[in-house]
Amino acid sequence: MPKLIIDGTEHDxxxxxxxxxxxxxxxxxxxxxxxxxxxxxxxxxxxxLVEVVGMPKPVxxxxxxxxDLRPNRDGTPPTINTKSEVTRRAQEGTLEFLLxxxxxxxxxxxxxxxxxxxxxxxxTGFDAGRFKDNKRAVEDKYLGPLIKTSMTRCIHxxxxxxxxxxxxxxxxxxxxxxxxxxxxxxxxxxxxxSNLSANVVDLCPxxxxxxxxxxxxxxxxxxxxxxxxxxxxxxxxxxRVDFRGKEVLRILPRINDAVNEEWISxxxxxxxxxxxTQRLDRPYVRKDGxxxxxxxxxxxxxxxxxxxxxxxxxxxxIAGDLAAAEEMFALKTLAEQLGSxxxxxxxxxxxxxxxxxxxxxxxxTTIGGIEEADAILLVGxxxxxxxxxxxxxxxxxxxxxxxxxxxxxxxxxxxxxYPSRGLARARKPWRTWPAANTxxxxxxxxxxxxxxxxxxxxxxxxxxxxxxxxGAKIVTESGAIAEGWNGFNVLHTxxxxxxxxxxxxxxxxxxxxxxxxxxxxxxxxxxILYLLGADEIDMSAxxxxxxxxQGSHGDKGAHRADVILPGAAxxxxxxxxxxxxxxxQMTARxxxxxxxxxxxxxxLKALSEALGKPLPFATLTELRGKMYAAAPQLAQLDTLEKxxxxxxxxxxxxxxxxxxxxxxxxxGDYYLSNPxxxxxxxMASVSAMRADAGKATGTDG
Length: 701
Description:
Among the domains are: about 100 residues, Ubiquitin-like (UB roll); about 210 residues, 3-Layer(aba) Sandwich (Rossmann fold); about 150 residues, Dimethylsulfoxide Reductase, domain 2 (3-Layer(aba) Sandwich), CATH 3.40.228. Helices cover about 25% and strands about 15% of the residues. It is built from 22 helices and 28 strands. The strands form 8 sheets. It has a 7-stranded mixed beta sheet with strand order 14-13-26-25-24-15-16, sandwiched between helices. Helix 8 packs parallel to helix 18.
């Protein structure tokens, strides 16, 4: 390990790191604008200049490796001075140049209070500049409905350019022109077409790029903040919810290297306005064909009267994509007490069975494990839409291997932001693997750590079990299951799915699944259907069935319901979720549900009392105690227990005969895929921009 003397103290530092990283390790803060740990080195802001004894002038610490420094003439380790007069004057001079053209608009800038330029001007700048020239003005650019631009503030650090090119994989931003005419812009002058684009707002060290929906909503010191997790997809990204009073005003990412690093999807970040619109804030009962407001007692009594007229066999329950484990456990327990085995959390119809083993429905490699893979086969999925943050991790691995990561795709051709080999849209390569595609089959077999990722489009079909079996066969034959490595991965799209499967929220003996319940309702064989936030089913096929909808938004389920029970959104309750890799995490309550809405488990508790079948718990602590007893893995917060791969090996021997239909896509419109997103005006505007792709111009506002 190289030795360095930093500010008079000798330190051992790791090989290959830069000076700025070495200083960070030993607790010395170096100012910077262009440098970012997860982006390539640009070295163009010069704010990180430090004095290296023996060198004729200060060096950019972000671009100088510790291995490039020579010992001093007396044999002592290289000496770096970060607080010397030379360093101070170099940093002050750099900051003075950066401020030459910067407008003095801090009072009206949304970045105020969170601005690196403000902070470093206070720490390393001085009170007056020596340059009196007129400031340069730059025309603002159109980057879509999520990003507000004030390009006169831009200091050309190129963080946004490097992020879009390297991490998002959509090289639409760039630096054009030279000298005073240099500008950051989109090459084609339209909105950014990446599901990760809004991360550039966090990266911008000045106020050039700010959040357009959040503009002038609040100052950061006015907001209260709680750590939580995102439920817009099954990745479970770590987020921070910022709120004031009764309103959530923004959502930001938290650093979690095991899951999302420090990125979140655009939908996770900007769905917050949907939390306040189209909300269900009071119970409703349908009278004379019209939903009318009522009291909680009237709603629960209406349900109780209807339940008394039927049997448990004619009662069904479907859990939606955003349901937390607590309410699913409460609903499952209530259904059991009513004598019903008709429960299902697989709203999309995916053929997962907890009885086959937990490994058959998890992302077993783990999200972090993607960075060890050396061959990937994607089947029936589009991770760039279904899990943008996970897709960025695959792209990161592709970059680490310098483009030598073989990626195969069976299904609809999609833009993955990295090269992939389309094995075919048809099902032949899947049905006759490996004979139909010996080249990629051999690449999988030759890889030391191959991965197979199966998406929801592959499972939400009548032959879902057959596809699962073929996937297990490919994994075992390619050697993807070995000591310390399980290459069988399921990419879920719903935050509620894994916890629901862990709880066994699937049909019991002789029970009906989602498709069967819908069919039975249409025939009149199902009297009552309980929808726990389930909106992604065909409501028109439910016939005359009595529908109870419990959820937070007036979406498809609420329009069809006979009784509406208003619940809480994910920012309004403490709920347990398990992400696609099985990592158990919890949301935190930022605000309370609006009006008369209640936390979902308390609604089910009150309903059980009205039905005369009280649930065996009175508090959230008691509920979780019983839930943990039923599913012990849900008690292991933020830890990953490797699932036994034995069931996968065993299932691989099943003689599968999948059908001939091609794989489709599981998500039609990424921005409108759940009730909260469909209630969001921001998501609607982004969806409209994507639908009108290519028509936006630089004159759009």
